[in-house]
């Protein structure tokens, strides 16, 4: 039957808890013809446009040609500050960081009557990203399980979930490290978290992601950061298949380096600013440097889910 409605916009949603390698994964997926990786879209309004932080191409977002074109395509212009604040406030309703909330109320978004304008704006935005990016699929590494429920309300989006997980002890170690954030407005370091806290979040966040995806019946694939780094071809092939575009081999250099083109990612780990030859190495410093008591604590708190994801006690 013929209809005038445009074909759905495909979105590959990179889910997973922070410091699990999603920015690296997105940079790699962006190399695949048909996919465009644009970072953590939920932060477009606040960090991207209101704070005018840098796009991964190095330009402040309001001056980035890619995003200016996307906004004109979606809305006819760059929304004004009042409109951006309204969009940001709406998106904040899908940023549950509160652990009980994440597990108990993850699947009940505000209804369309109240936030219909916001869901319609999201639909226009993702459609415009695909068009301007010349891609069939938009890769969004927003990661929040709660934000997935907003995308499910947006009309005309075909959402598929690629869930990246990483050994929680490596994740907890990463959250302890002092790391510079070249994107922070006042030269602040990246946020840090105690391993006990990381362990709880790692478990709740990953479980909430599985639960929302399952209840919504979304196409889903879980993959491990460690496999992405050690077997990039096979891992990316599986994720690419989920997104529905033809598979393409990843170009890896003689020294195991990856060739990353300049991207236009909003927010995310500072590795997003790297382009050209980027070494592809497993970051397993935690196995040598993590305090034994933190290692034991993280291992114990995360044990059931960690075992299911194939991470042993060693
Ligand atoms: Zn840019």
List the helices and strands and how they pair.
Elements: E1 9-15, H1 22-29, E2 35-37, H2 44-50, H3 65-75, H4 81-92, H5 99-104, H6 112-132, E3 137-143, H7 145-153, E4 157-165, H8 168-176, H9 195-216, E5 220-224, H10 225-230, H11 232-243, E6 257-260, E7 276-279, H12 286-289, H13 292-301, H14 303-308
Parallel strand pairs: 1-3, 1-4, 2-3, 4-5
Antiparallel strand pairs: 6-7
Helix pairs in contact: 2-4, 3-6, 7-9, 8-9, 8-13, 9-13
The site of zinc ion has 6 residues, from loops.
Please provide a brief summary of the model.
The chain contains 14 helices and 7 strands. The chain has 314 residues and is of the alpha/beta class.
Q: Order of SSEs, N→C? A: EHEHHHHHEHEHHEHHEEHHH
In the sheet with the most strands, the strands line up as 2-3-1-4-5
Largest sheet: 5 strands, parallel
| CATH architecture level-2 label | 3-Layer(aba) Sandwich
Overall geometric form:
globular
Q: What structural class do helix, strand and pairing data support?
A: alpha/beta
Low-pLDDT runs: none
CATH topology: Rossmann fold
Rg, please?
A: 19 Å
Q: Quick one: CATH class?
A: Alpha Beta
Helix content: 40-55%
- How many structural domains does the protein architecture include? 1
Q: What fraction of the residues are assigned to beta strands by DSSP?
A: 5-15%
What does it look like?
GO terms for molecular function: N-acetylglucosamine 6-O-sulfotransferase activity. InterPro entries: Gal/GlcNAc/GalNAc_ST, P-loop_NTPase. Pfam families: Sulfotransfer_3 (PF13469). This is Sulfotransferase. The chain is of the alpha/beta class. The chain has a single domain, classed as Rossmann fold, CATH 3.40.50. The protein is built from 14 helices and seven strands. The strands form two sheets. It has a five-stranded parallel β-sheet with strand order 2-3-1-4-5, sandwiched between helices. Helix 7 runs parallel beside helix 9. The longest helix has 22 residues. It is globular. The site of zinc ion (ZN) has 6 residues, from loops.
């Amino acid at each position: 039957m013929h209809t005038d409605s445009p074909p759905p916009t495909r979105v590959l949603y990179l889910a997973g808890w922070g410091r699990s390698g999603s920015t690296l994964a997105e940079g790699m997926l962006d190399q695949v013809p048909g996919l465009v990786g644009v970072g953590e879209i939920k932060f477009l309004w606040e960090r991207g446009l209101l704070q005018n932080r840098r796009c991964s191409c190095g330009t402040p977002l309001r001056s980035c040609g890619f995003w200016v074109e996307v906004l004109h395509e979606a809305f006819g212009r760059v929304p004004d500050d009042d409109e951006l604040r309204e969009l940001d406030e709406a998106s904040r309703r899908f940023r549950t960081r509160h652990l009980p909330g994440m597990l108990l109320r993850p699947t009940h978004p505000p209804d369309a009557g109240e936030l219909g304008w916001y869901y319609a704006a999201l639909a226009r935005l993702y459609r415009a990203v695909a068009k301007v990016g010349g891609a069939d699929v938009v890769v969004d590494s927003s990661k929040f399980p709660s934000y997935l429920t907003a995308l499910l309300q947006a009309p005309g989006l075909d959402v598929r979930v690629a869930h990246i997980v990483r050994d929680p002890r490596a994740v907890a170690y990463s959250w302890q490290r002092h790391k510079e954030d070249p994107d922070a407005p006042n030269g602040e370091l990246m946020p840090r978290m105690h391993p006990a806290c990381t362990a709880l979040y790692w478990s709740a966040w990953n479980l909430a992601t599985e639960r929302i995806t399952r209840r919504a019946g979304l196409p889903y694939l879980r993959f491990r950061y460690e496999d992405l780094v050690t077997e990039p071809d096979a891992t990316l092939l599986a994720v690419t298949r989920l997104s529905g575009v033809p598979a393409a081999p990843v170009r890896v250099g003689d020294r195991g380096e990856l060739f990353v083109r300049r991207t236009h990612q909003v927010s995310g780990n500072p590795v997003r600013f790297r382009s050209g030859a980027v070494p592809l190495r497993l970051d397993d410093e935690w196995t040598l440097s993590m305090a034994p008591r933190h290692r034991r604590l993280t291992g114990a708190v995360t044990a059931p889910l960690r075992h299911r994801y194939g991470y042993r006690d060693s």
